[in-house]
Amino acid sequence: MKKEVIERQEAMNSSLENSNTGSLADLVTILVPTLNEVENVDHLVERILAATKDAGFSIEIVFVDGGSKDGTQEAVRAWENKAPVRLAQSDGKAGYRVTSSTGPLLPKQTWSW
């Protein structure tokens, strides 16, 4: 999983650097923990995109999935070529807890408050 995450992160970094949407300093990462949330993925992505459309910064939506068995992962992957959406998967043993340990390792930009 770690190699896949790094490869996707490098690809998205390259894509962002070649776009006119901003720099990494202008990027906000939205972490979304999921576990069997297939019915909510499309609606959530659409709402996030609408809410941040004119925000003045770029976003990435990282779904951190804890081993969904209902098609959640496939629903997220369907967005990967249409929007700044990525999927990170756990081995299925961690559930929502995976966000606290894996999620912070995934963003391109780290913010501290």
Can you give a write-up of this model?
- This protein has 113 residues and is of the alpha/beta class.
- It has a single domain (2-105), classed as Spore Coat Polysaccharide Biosynthesis Protein SpsA, Chain A (Alpha-Beta Complex).
- Helix content is 36%, strand content 19%.
- It has four helices and three strands, in the order αβαβαβα.
- It has helices at 2-17, 38-52, 72-77, 98-101; strands at 27-34, 58-65, 85-89.
- It has a three-stranded parallel sheet.
- Strand 1 (27-34), helix 2 (38-52) and strand 2 form a beta-alpha-beta unit.
- Mean pLDDT is 77; it is low at 109-113.
Sum up the structure in keywords:
single chain, 113 residues, alpha/beta, Spore Coat Polysaccharide Biosynthesis Protein SpsA, Chain A, 3-stranded parallel sheet, 36% helix, 19% strand, globular
List the helices and strands and how they pair.
Layout: H1 2-17, E1 27-34, H2 38-52, E2 58-65, H3 72-77, E3 85-89, H4 98-101
Parallel strand pairs: 1-2, 2-3
Give a concise summary.
This protein is α/β, with parallel strands linked by helices. 36% of the residues lie in helices and 19% in strands.
CATH class: Alpha Beta
Beta strands, count: 3
What is the CATH topology classification name? Answer: Spore Coat Polysaccharide Biosynthesis Protein SpsA, Chain A
Mean pLDDT: 77
The span between the termini is: 29 Å
CATH superfamily: Spore Coat Polysaccharide Biosynthesis Protein SpsA, Chain A
Element-level helix/strand string: HEHEHEH
Q: Could you say what the CATH architecture is?
A: Alpha-Beta Complex
Largest sheet: 3 strands, parallel
How much strand content do the residues show? 15-25%
Strand order of the largest sheet: 1-2-3
Question: Shape from CA axes?
Answer: globular
What are the segments in which pLDDT stays under 50 over at least 5 consecutive residues? 109-113
Number of helices: 4
Helix fraction by DSSP (H/I, runs of at least 4): 25-40%
Rg to the nearest angstrom? 14 Å
